[in-house]
Amino acid sequence: MSSQDSQPFHWHFSTELNHNDLEIHGRTLFFIVILLALVILITLLSLYARWVCRYQQHHIPSSNPLSHTLAPSQRGLGLDQTMIKAIPISLHQSSSSSSSLSECCICLGVFEEGDKVKVLPECNHFFHCECVDKWLVTHSSCPLCRALILCCDTV
Fold it and tell me: Is the pLDDT of residue 44 over 90?
């Protein structure tokens, strides 16, 4: 074993470098340029799409004259104040309501005789005025059945 360890390792150096090994031929150069162009194009498209999404989220016009004609899901989160005020208010009567609807599902408070309640137009569910007004500022649907509150022409 010592005879193998004692033999020196011979390096073979070439004094001449072959430049043909380092050349990039036409077809290889073409594929590198195409690949680089595709990477740049995909990067620019993703940055543009990101910018468009951010721009649309932060620049929703609040004073759009057609905003009251759009469905609530197209306008944003909740209803505007004119639509909330247009929902009819009535006085609660215990004899006209069923026993299962004797409490407001938002605040879980029991309806008393003569309480002011708002009746939603699509589903006819009713809630305390203050409770449903707070809900409709941030939502455009009924808190009980999630029916969309559609725009009415009385606004």
Answer: yes
